Amino acid sequence: MIKTVIIEDEKPAARKIERMLSLFPELQVVASLESVEDGVKWFSENEHPQLIFSDIVLGDGLSFDIFEKVPTKGFIIYTTAFDQYTLKAFKLNSIDYLLKPILEEDLAGAIEKFKSFLPSGNSVTSQEIKQLIKKDKTTLSRVLVKIGYNLKIVQTSEISCFFSENKIVYLQTEDRTYPSDFTLDELEDVLDEKKFFRANRQFIISSDYIKNIHTSPNYKVELDFQPKEEITVSRDRVKDFKDWLVG
Predict the structure, then answer these.
(1) Rounded distance between C-alpha atoms, residue 117 and residue 109, angstroms
(2) Response regulatory domain: from which residue to which, for each copy (predicted)?
(3) CA dist., res. 123 & res. 73, Å (int)
(4) Cis ω on the peptide bond leading into residue 179 (within 30° of 0)?
């Protein structure tokens, strides 16, 4: 049996996940936790399960807080209504990321992925998990931004570039510039590398919005929508940039 834990602060949602998991007889739900406090206590006092289904936003914080305080070697499948947490999820042993409402076929696919990571049924180390995850990386498809007291979802397909200014990373769309909660290094790990390229320390650009490229004296890129700053490809990145353009 594969010991499994559910972390979900909404009881109806927790019951729904448990019902869905009952369709998989090889899984045994050993605990259902509702908060960061419950999670830290339980994982501190019990043998860790092989598989964890965890909502991200809980009543007393983010479930990431649990595993930062009590590291686990188990695989985590995160469930949430938004995917702005994708980056941090995949830094904490996540093998999949299910957006609510969860569909049975998506759940089944996530469980099959878990099984493929454990062909022998044995546990693996955290480092091995990270290597497996790296090979099966999920890319960021949308970003949640805050506008005053409102939240807005921006599709990455709408973003011409990400850029840093005064230690804040912004994203640029046709309409306006939005601040984000990411660093450029973090974004470089989760953006689709076929679409986005790290031009220099300040900019990540999208191939969909390149308007012109000047090659002399430096490689300078003009985008359809960009901030006032000039975008120049770092000299040590020029070859990679040209390969990316034709790749």
Answers:
(1) 13
(2) 3-115
(3) 8
(4) no
- At residue 222, the 3 state secondary structure works out as strand
Give every CB contact of residue 192 below 8 A, 6+ residues apart in sequence: 139, 140, 156
Interval 102-131: pLDDT, tens: 888 889 998 988 888 765 544 444 454 445
pLDDT of residue 133: 46
At 83, the pLDDT band (50, 70, 90 cuts) reads low
Give the best-scoring range by mean pLDDT among 90-94, 170-174, 182-186. Answer: 170-174
Contacts of 60 (CB under 8 A, 6+ apart): 35, 36, 37
Structural domains of the chain in order of their starting residue, each with its CATH number: 2-117 (3.40.50.2300), 126-246 (2.40.50.1020)
Tokens at 33, concatenated = 């936790």
